[in-house]
Design brief:
By secondary structure, the protein is of the alpha/beta class. Among the domains are: 252 residues, ANL, N-terminal domain (Rossmann fold); 106 residues, GMP Synthetase, Chain A, domain 3 (2-Layer Sandwich). Helices cover 29% and strands 25% of the residues. The strands form five sheets. It has a 15-stranded mixed beta sheet that branches. Strand 25 and strand 26 form a beta hairpin. Helix 1 packs across helix 10, helix 9 packs across helix 10 and helix 11 packs across helix 12. The longest helix is centred in the first third of the chain and has 17 residues. The chain is globular and about 70 Å long.
Length: 553
């Protein structure tokens, strides 16, 4: 028997068309210098998205072309989220926190044809222009208001490059666009991993995957969004598409608040007060910084409208969760990664659980998965382990928004039998709650961002005085984890930790620089000659490895 249901493709433009019709007057708010808020309705956002699509088409952008963004969370960035995939091109948000060389590598690897950048990020963009060999057009958001010299930017590229002011380019276009009927399985957006092992790797999201993720993210078990909500998207739009929040907001009619570059605790507190958000999403370090400011400045800002915030990127410290409980704000763990679009689980306690201790226990897990995402634990011999709350193995996932491969690069160890190997180790309770206990690889998770220990080691061992170096993650109250650099110095040489830190300063992002250092006689090794970081972690735990704190002067 064959169903006669209509086979309507799941395209991003259909979400946009629905939202600008039924939620036309719902608003997007963007923080402005001085504490003000700019507003655009969903209808105006849809019209501006159509204008942007026309502008991009006039520059020669066609279906499948990559359009990169290097932008803060703001109105124009949301417009790009809708315009680029809806016209059949591929949205590619670039991570502005990566070292410039990595940004350049990623843009070239993705073969970005157009780059849309905020004028405040031009000091980062301008030196990269000669290396962005695939980029034919640079569109500067806010160029006119900032007095940006577009001709000088074009000259800085040292090659033919079209440079345009976003407002002038887009504002002259009609507010309609004939959105094409693209294949729902075609690429809509892409993000790159942080390069924890080797070069960053691209993950391509389809229209279908984003559509399904947006629907399910809104469910009560995950973000639980409705048109009655106003959500603050602190998570950057370059970080796995802001966890899908711009798309989910338009699915549900929830209003969206964008902080722009104003991510320090006081501006965030003022933004919450001014916008009266009731929900938010961000990494633990953001919430820790905001808490410290609120405690140091009692009564300085009214954040009582905020009732719930999703925390992802790294585990939320129990003390932070408890502190926000006292403020009347419920922090909720969510788990995911670039490869999972990202939402895979959320730690909402089961219905009917009311005992405070039990509720807290559930909230300290990584949570329970949503229906399209399947989870399993695999032991060291490849055996599938039971969900008994005790058996520990590597978490593997599969589902309609879980990637099955990387763009333009092979990594067969990451995928097998149709499952994604997450590299995270933990156990799952009989009722499906995931608790992570470790990671397969020695990546360091600091403030919701990944730091590659291998990258730090390789850079350190490029110093003539350092024949061996091993980097491990150690607990940090503010950031969750921070790197501890254990170095072996070549006999007859002398170099200080401050000098080594300075040596790294132009090779990795500043936030990746270790402040914890230790000199060791040699790096312990396994039976096959690999660095034994497990042993270093044991030495640290036993107090045998005592780090020295070194920070910038």
């Amino acid at each position: 028997m064959i169903s006669t249901m209509q086979d309507v493709p799941l395209q991003i433009r259909r979400i946009l068309e629905h939202a600008v019709s039924v939620y036309a007057d719902q608003k997007i708010y963007t923080a402005q210098p001085g504490g003000g808020l700019s507003t655009r309705t969903f209808r105006e956002t849809g019209e501006n998205a159509a204008r942007l699509a026309r502008a991009l088409a006039s520059l020669g952008v066609r279906e499948g072309d990559r359009v990169a963004t290097l932008m803060w969370n703001n109105q124009e960035h949301v417009e790009a989220y809708w315009a680029v995939p809806s016209m059949g091109a591929v949205l590619h948000p670039l991570n502005l926190r990566l070292p410039p060389a990595q940004i350049g590598y990623i843009a070239c690897h993705a073969e970005d044809r157009v780059l849309i950048a905020d004028h405040s990020l031009l000091p980062l963009v301008t030196p990269l222009l000669p290396t962005l060999t695939t980029v034919e057009h640079l569109i500067v958001n806010g160029a006119a208001a900032s007095g940006t010299d577009l001709a000088a930017l074009a000259a800085a590229a040292g090659r033919e490059l079209g440079v345009h002011d976003y407002g002038e380019l887009v504002g002259s276009q009609p507010p309609t666009y004939a959105w094409p009927d693209v294949d729902e399985r075609s690429a809509a957006a892409m993000c790159y991993t942080s390069g924890t092992t080797g070069d960053p790797k691209g993950v391509v999201y389809s229209h279908r995957s984003i559509y399904l993720h947006s629907l399910c993210a809104a469910l009560p078990g995950l973000l639980n969004l409705t048109a009655a909500d106003r959500v603050l998207a602190i998570v950057p739009q370059f970080h796995v598409l802001a966890w899908g929040l711009p798309y989910t907001a338009f699915v549900t009619g929830a209003e969206l608040v964008q902080p722009g570059p104003f991510l320090q605790p006081e501006p965030l507190a003022r933004l919450i007060e001014a916008s009266r958000v009731n929900k938010a999403a961000g990494v633990p370090t953001i919430w820790a910084g905001l808490l410290s400011w609120l405690e140091a400045n009692p009564g300085a800002a009214d954040v009582s409208s905020l009732k719930e915030a999703v925390v992802g990127g790294s585990a939320c410290p129990p003390a932070l969760l408890d502190a926000y409980d006292r403020l009347g704000v419920t922090l909720l763990h969510a788990y995911g990664m670039t490869e999972t679009s990202p939402l895979a689980t959320c730690a909402r306690p089961p219905v009917g659980v009311t005992d405070p201790a039990e509720v807290r226990r559930y909230r300290l897990t990584q949570g329970r998965g949503v229906v399209p995402v399947e989870s399993r634990l695999v032991g060291p011999a490849g055996e599938v382990l039971p969900w008994d709350g005790e058996s520990t193995g590597e978490l593997e996932l599969r589902g309609p928004w879980i990637t099955g491969s990387y763009y333009g690069s092979e990594d067969p160890d990451k995928f097998h039998d149709g499952w994604l190997r997450t590299g995270d180790v933990g156990h799952i309770s009989p009722d499906g709650y995931l608790t992570l206990t470790d990671r397969v690889k020695d990546v360091i998770k600091s403030g919701g961002e990944w730091i590659s220990s291998v990258e730090l080691e390789n850079q350190l061992m490029a110093h003539p005085a350092v024949p061996e170096a091993a980097v491990i993650g150690v607990p940090d109250e503010k950031w969750g984890e921070r790197p501890l650099a254990c170095v072996v110095l070549r006999e007859g040489t002398e170099v200080t930790f401050s000098e080594l830190r300075e040596f790294l300063a132009d090779k990795v992002a500043r936030w990746q620089l270790p402040e914890n250092w230790a000199r060791i006689p040699e790096v312990p090794k396994t039976s096959v000659g690999k660095f034994d970081k497990k042993r270093l972690r044991e030495q640290y735990a036993l107090g045998e490895l005592v780090p020295e704190k070194i920070t910038a002067s």
